[in-house]
C-alpha cells in the first residue's frame, strides 16, 4: 500500500513555481502555482514551524523532516557549493528553488511517511481494501464508466460505482488500464483486438522521466558511510532503528542537495543535485572500494518523450514501455553541464584536505565525447515516470483540468500520469498535491 511512496527515496520536493505556470499555459486551467500551493501546504506536516512561514504546511498528514546533518561531509559539500558561487538556500520549497541547502524528507519520528501511513487509518467504514486483486478493465456502458472488473486469484469479480470510477494506477498502469478498457488510440486498440469505446489518441503518449548519473569523489579520511556498511554495521543500524527509530536508519541520507541552471539563459534551474555521503549505487548493490561521496545529477526538464503501449489484450502482460531517453540534443548538453557542475563543487578548497581521486566518471573523461560515453554507459532512471494521460484541452490530452477522461463520463485519472509536463524535482510531493486538489474537486462535484 502507498505505491511509490512506500519504496522511494523519501525526498520532499515540490518542484519549481514555473512548473505549474507551465501546466496552466499547456491547458491545465486552475493549476498555476498560486492554486496548487494551498494543497501542498494542506498535505504537509513540517517539523519546524516559524511565525513568518507562508510556504510550509504544519497540520497535514504527510510528515516531513530536515536531516540532522551529523555526517561532516554534508557540511563540506555545502561549503564547497558556496565557494563555487552557488547561493545557499534554506528552503527549496519556498520562494526560490535555486541554490544548495538542506533537502527535506518524507520522514516523521524516524519512520517513512508513505501515503498509506499518512492517509489510511486502521478502521474506516467507507473503505474496503481487497488484497491481491488485479483490475482487468473498466466497465463502460454507452460512454459511461460503471465500475471495474478485477481478478482475485482465479476468480473474476466486478465492483460498481455509485458516482465515479477513479483510476490511480500510476504513469505506466493507468494508460495500460485505459487501453485495455477500449480508451486510447483507435488504430492501436484495433490492432490489439479491443473494442474502441473512446478514440483518445493521447493515452500512453507523452511519457517523461528523469535520468541521473553519479559523480563519485573519493575522500582520504574515514568520514563517509563506507565504515558503516559492513554486515555488522548494517545490523547495528537496523537494530538501533527497530529499538529507537533513530540513527542512520531514520534518514534517507539525501540530507542536502541543490538546483542550478545548465546555462545562464535558462528560464529556471534545470539540474538537480542529491548529495550522498557514500560512493555506492542507488539500490545498494555495489559500492566503491573505499571512502567517498557522490552527487546524483541529471536534467530535470528533458524534452524527450516516450510512450506506453499494449503488447496484447491480456491484462497480465506487461505493456511495452519506450522511454526514448536522450533523444533530444539538449539532453546531452544538460548532462555535460551537470557533471561539470558537480566536479566544480568537488574541486573547491573546502574539499582540499580530504579530496582523493575521482571514482566516476574518472580523470580520463573530460571531453564532450568522453562525458557522453559515460552518460550512455551509466545513466539510470530516477523512477519519476509521468505524463501518459496528460491533463489539458488539446487533441493529445487525455483528461480535463478536473481529471475527467475525455469522451467518457464518470471516469477520472488521478496520479502522475496526468502531469502535462514533468516537474523540476522528485514527483512524490506533486503527486500527493494532485490527489489533494482532485479530492476537493470530487467532493464539490
Q: What is the CATH C-level name of the domain at 67-103 and 211-299 and 326-378?
A: Alpha Beta
Return the CATH architecture of the domain at 67-103 and 211-299 and 326-378. 2-Layer Sandwich
Distance between the termini: 27 Å
Low-confidence stretches: none
The main sheet comes to:
7 strands, antiparallel
| Order of secondary-structure elements | HHEEHEEEHEEEEHEHEEHEEEEEHEHEEH
What is the structural class? alpha+beta
Relative helix content: 25-40%
Number of E-type strands: 20
Q: Helix count?
A: 10
Global mean pLDDT: 95
CATH topology of the domain at 67-103 and 211-299 and 326-378: Cholesterol Oxidase, domain 2
Shape summary: globular
**Strand residue content:** 15-25%
What is the radius of gyration?
23 Å
What does the model show?
The strands form seven sheets. Strands 3, 12, 13, 14, 15, 18 and 19 form a seven-stranded antiparallel sheet that branches. This protein has a domain of 179 residues: 2-Layer Sandwich (Cholesterol Oxidase, domain 2), CATH 3.30.410.40. The longest helix has 18 residues. The protein is built from ten helices and 20 strands. The protein is of the alpha+beta class. Strand 7 and strand 8 form a beta hairpin. 26% of the residues lie in helices and 20% in strands.
Summarize the structure.
The protein is an alpha+beta fold and 445 residues long. The protein has a domain at 67-103 and 211-299 and 326-378: Cholesterol Oxidase, domain 2.
Pick out its properties.
445 residues, alpha+beta, Cholesterol Oxidase, domain 2, seven-stranded antiparallel sheet, three-stranded antiparallel sheet, 26% helix
Amino acid at each position: 500500500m502507498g505505491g511509490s511512496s512506500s519504496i522511494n527515496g523519501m525526498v520532499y520536493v515540490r518542484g519549481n513555481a514555473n512548473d505549474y505556470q507551465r501546466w496552466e499555459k499547456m491547458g491545465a486551467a486552475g493549476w498555476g502555482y498560486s492554486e496548487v500551493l494551498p494543497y501542498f501546504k494542506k498535505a504537509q506536516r513540517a517539523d519546524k514551524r516559524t511565525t513568518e512561514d507562508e510556504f510550509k504546511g504544519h497540520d497535514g498528514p504527510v510528515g516531513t523532516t530536515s536531516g540532522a546533518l551529523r555526517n561532516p561531509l554534508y557540511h563540506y559539500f555545502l561549503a564547497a557549493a558556496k565557494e563555487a558561487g552557488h547561493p545557499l538556500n534554506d528552503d527549496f520549497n519556498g520562494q526560490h528553488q535555486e541554490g544548495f541547502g538542506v533537502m527535506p524528507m518524507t520522514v516523521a519520528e524516524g519512520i517513512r511517511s508513505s501515503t498509506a501511513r499518512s492517509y489510511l487509518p486502521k478502521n474506516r467504514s467507507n473503505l474496503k481494501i481487497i488484497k491481491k486483486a488485479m483490475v482487468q478493465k473498466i466497465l463502460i456502458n454507452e460512454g459511461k464508466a460503471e465500475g471495474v472488473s478485477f481478478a482475485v486469484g482465479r476468480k473474476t469479480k466486478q465492483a460498481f460505482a455509485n458516482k465515479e470510477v477513479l483510476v490511480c494506477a500510476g504513469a505506466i498502469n493507468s494508460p495500460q488500464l485505459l487501453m485495455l478498457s477500449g480508451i486510447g488510440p483507435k488504430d492501436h486498440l484495433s490492432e490489439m483486438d479491443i473494442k474502441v469505446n473512446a478514440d483518445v489518441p493521447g493515452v500512453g503518449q507523452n511519457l517523461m522521466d528523469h535520468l541521473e548519473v553519479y559523480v563519485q569523489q573519493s575522500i582520504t579520511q574515514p568520514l563517509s558511510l563506507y565504515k558503516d556498511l559492513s554486515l555488522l554495521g548494517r545490523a547495528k543500524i537496523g537494530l538501533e532503528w527497530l529499538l529507537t527509530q533513530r540513527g542512520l536508519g531514520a534518514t534517507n541520507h539525501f540530507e542536502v542537495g541543490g538546483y542550478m541552471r545548465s546555462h545562464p539563459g535558462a528560464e529556471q534551474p534545470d539540474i538537480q543535485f542529491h548529495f550522498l555521503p557514500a560512493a555506492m549505487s542507488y539500490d545498494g548493490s555495489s559500492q566503491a572500494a573505499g571512502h567517498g561521496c557522490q552527487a546524483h545529477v541529471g536534467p530535470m526538464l528533458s524534452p524527450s518523450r516516450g510512450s506506453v503501449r499494449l503488447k496484447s489484450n491480456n491484462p497480465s502482460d506487461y505493456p511495452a514501455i519506450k522511454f526514448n531517453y536522450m533523444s533530444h540534443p539538449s539532453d546531452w548538453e544538460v548532462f555535460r553541464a551537470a557533471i561539470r557542475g558537480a566536479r566544480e563543487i568537488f574541486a573547491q578548497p573546502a574539499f582540499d584536505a580530504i579530496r582523493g581521486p575521482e571514482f566516476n566518471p574518472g580523470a580520463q573523461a573530460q571531453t564532450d565525447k568522453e562525458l557522453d560515453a559515460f552518460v550512455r554507459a551509466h545513466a539510470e532512471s530516477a523512477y519519476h515516470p509521468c505524463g501518459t494521460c496528460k491533463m489539458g484541452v488539446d487533441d493529445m490530452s487525455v483528461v480535463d483540468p478536473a481529471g475527467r477522461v475525455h469522451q467518457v463520463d464518470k471516469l477520472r485519472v488521478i496520479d502522475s500520469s496526468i502531469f502535462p509536463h514533468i516537474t523540476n524535482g522528485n514527483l512524490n510531493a506533486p503527486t500527493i498535491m494532485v490527489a489533494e486538489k482532485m479530492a476537493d474537486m470530487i467532493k464539490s462535484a
